[in-house]
Amino acid sequence: MNQLWAPWRLEYVAAARQPGCVFCAAHRCPAPNRELLVLYRDPAAVVLLNRFPYQNAHLLVCPALHTGDPGGLDAPVFAHLTELVRRALDILRQEYRAEGFNVGMNLGACAGAGITDHLHWHVVPRWTGDTNFLPVLADVRSIPEHLERTWERLWPAFADLRLTPPQDPPAESSPAP
Question: Torsions phi, psi of 78, nearest 5?
Answer without folding.
Answer: -60, -45
